[in-house]
Amino acid sequence: MDAPFIYHKYVTGKSFIGRKSESTALANLLRQGENIVLYEPPKTGKMSLLQHTLMEMKMKGEQFSSTSISLLNIRETADLLCSLCDAVLKTAGNSAHEFSSLAGRLLGGSHFVFDPDLYEQEGRLLRLNAEPDNEDIRIAFTLPYRIASEKGEALIITIHEFQNVMQTEDGDRICRRFAETLRQMPQELRRSCRFILSGSCVNAMKDIFQYHNYFNRLVERIELLPIDDKTIIEHIVKGFLNGGKVIDRELLLGVNRLFRCNIWYINHFCAICDSLSKGYIMGPTLVEALEMLISIHEPRFQAAMNDLTTFQVRLLRAIVDGNLKFSSSAVIKQYGLSSSANVRRLKDALCKKEIISFNEHDEPYFLDPLLEYWVRTRFFALKAE
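Structure (tokenized):
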């Protein structure tokens, strides 16, 4: 029997709830040949949205190939470029002979070479025989268009954790050359390939796509809106009913508020509740489940707080207390923040550590709802709101 509350893997089909408008928008943009940027905190449904949408498009008979790479462990330009080219070449070949032929024909004039020993031992195809230059970057990012054009089939490439491009020794150059390639792509080739640039470090992605704006007018952002209370509550009630269990809907409104409708946390929380109960699920069960969920994540939360300076902790307390005008003399004095210049540095530091972000009204919010609850109730020992 399928588990009613899935949190350990991405979901598609009947298990995919909410996000229908986002899925429709994503599919329409991909059909129009647009490149996509998607950035949200970890475990908010990015992968489920992508996989569900691509699956739905395939089920409707749309013809395309798709591949993906992750920059999670990428720290060097050469590794990034080789990973991209490897993934693209694997959509067009199946053997060492085919890969060698494709590399020789499509990567000529670059420093990329097919390495049969690397392929045999690790499954990777390419290495660079010199430091990557601008031509290598151009060839790597045009390769998907050239292969898609040859195959006569659209290619969709997802680059996960795209913000890590800035962890390489030359992230700025890669972004600029990548954007330049997209702008200069001939019109007849543009619709043959679409990039989906996905990231879970919100502030780092904002830095690339909003502040530096490398990809101005080259990508369309898909924003994940909160799943509405009714949809989540129906999902939870149905999940418990499948196991012969009942829960008060009023209790679930409090669950939604606590987790800010984060379906990953809610599914994990409900899975714990499911394991603790046999019939009617009462308040004490929810309290115990919350304690168990916090115990799982507490080491991560403690590590995040241990990484903060005293001044950063003070600013975080000001945020928890609901302050908005951090540079006012009253707030600076009350929380010992030293000066308005120091406040700006502290805000930047907390954003770079991906603990908080700011909305369009310059109002701060925690990126992780359970961290917010833990900081309020455990770290600062305040009452839960």
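The first strand starts at residue 35 and ends at 39. The radius of gyration is 24 Å.
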